[in-house]
Structure formats: structure tokens, C-alpha cells
Amino acid sequence: MNITIGIPLALGWAAALLVNYLADVLPATRRFTTPACKQCAAKFAWTDYLLLKGCSACNHPRGWRMWITQVLGVMATIYIWISPPDGLDFWLGFVLLIYLAVVFVIDVELRLILHPVSYFGVLLGLLVGIKLNGILPTLFGGVLGFGIMFGLYYFGVLFARWISKRRGETVIEEGDALGYGDVNLAGVLGLMLGGNIIWLGILMAILAGGLVSIIYIIWMLALKRYEAFAAIPYAPFLIFSAIFFIYF
């Protein structure tokens, strides 16, 4: 194998293993620990886990997410190896890609953005943002991204409460409207994109989220399984928007 291609292949495979590992253990334990089977909670042997084998205790397979992550991780790493993002070297773009993938996978599966992941994102966002935009635009972008999404979050809370009262139902919890983790993520991405771009990134995410929501509603209506106020994860749209501006 050509060593030029072998390096990003190996790096991408290892990065995807790390993303899968973090997505498996952080939501369950909030710390680095031995991964466990989601079906029977038996601990994996590390050799089985790294070789992508299923649970030896109950024979439960690892699932489609693991394989999709591995394939996309390799493809994305090869892409940024060949064409690093403007203003960033390969390695910083590589670490950023791993971070965004971890947030994406956890939010899609659990609608959850962990605070420790957000704290790490602030440090990474400062590093990326200062390298791309300088200190002041980076800080302004973080404040603006957080502020815009907090306004949307609070509007969602008020709207959900109003709807609940109109229907005489129990008031919907605040997290059901728009997760506060999305607010933190918008602040992190604002650090990366800077004040001139983050508003456009959020707008793109809103439009993409709205389009997918419409398609989802039509699909659920066709299947006669529609439920009002069914939530969809929002972080993926923010992440896709950030990836577009940083990597493309």
C-alpha cells in the first residue's frame, strides 16, 4: 500500500475507534472506562472491542453506528489529508473533526450534549478560532453564537409553555423545546467561526433543520405515526454548518 494513503487510512480508522469509544462510555459513565454491552451491560474485552466484535456474553452485535463511523472516519481523514482546511494544518483539522464527530454521534443517539464535552470544545474553539480569525473576532463569535441560540432557546421555552397552557396540559419541560446543550454548542462553534460567520452558520442550521423537520413530519403523517412536538436532534445541523464553513 502506498504510504501516502496508508497514513490517513490508519489515522482515520483510529480516530473512528476513538469516536465510537467516547460515544459509548461518556454518556453512560461521564468518564473514561471499559466499554460495556448496551444489551446486557457486560464489560467488553479490549481486544474484542478494538476488533469490532460483538458482546461475548450475549452475542449482541455492535450495531450499524460503529461501522458507519469507521467508514466515514476514514473517508473524512483522507479528504483533509489531501485538502486540509484553509487556515488550519492537518492535525488541528483532524482533532476538530474528531470532536465534532463525538458531539454529532452522542446527540443523534441520545439528544444530549455533555458539559465536559462542551468545556473541551471551548478550549478547542479558542485554539481554532484564534488561528483562523484572531482573538477579538473569536471571542465576539463565541458571545454572539451563544447569545443567538440562547434567545432561540428561551423563545422555545415560552412558546412551549404557552401551547401547554392553551391545551390545558402539563407545562413542557424547558429541555423539550431546545436543549441547553445546543446553546453551549453554538457558543463553541461561534468561537471557531468568528463573529462575521457564526450568524450565517446558525441561519444555515435553522434552515436545514426546518427542511428536515418538514420532511420528517410528512413521512410520519404518511405512516400515520405523527406526534406533535416530537423532537429531533439539533446539534447535527449546527455541526454540518460548521463543517461546511471550516472544511469546504
TrEMBL record:
Residues 94-214 form the Prepilin type IV endopeptidase peptidase domain. One of its GO terms (molecular function) is aspartic-type endopeptidase activity. The chain crosses the membrane at residues 6-23, 64-82, 88-106, 113-132, 138-160, 197-222, 228-247. The keyword Isomerase does not apply. GO terms for biological process: signal peptide processing. The keyword Membrane applies. It holds the Pfam family Peptidase_A24. One of its GO terms (cellular component) is plasma membrane. Keywords: Membrane, Transmembrane, Transmembrane helix. Belongs to the peptidase A24 family. This is Prepilin peptidase. It comes from Candidatus Desulfolinea nitratireducens. The lineage of its organism: Bacteria, Bacillati, Chloroflexota, Anaerolineae, Anaerolineales.
